[in-house]
Task: structure prediction
Amino acid sequence: MDALAGGLNTFATSSYNYAQYIQEIVLETQLGGLKGERAYLDYHYDLSCGKFMNTLLHLTLLKAAALQTFRYVKELRVEAEKPVF
Result:
């Protein structure tokens, strides 16, 4: 499990509601160019992994009571559902 999936899973499903303490969520690429695009291919919305990521992100945001900053960088090229925004 990668760090994004593991973190979102913990925030969305934990009975301790860790998500309520999140103040900032920033989703952006760490790598540029073709290598960066290949790293995020699995998260495209038309694949099941991308749909699960969107669902976990949405559930996390619903619980993030202290959220002050949410930034979803356009260059990520991973479609987010409308409820996420």
Notes: Helices lie at 3-13, 33-39, 48-63.
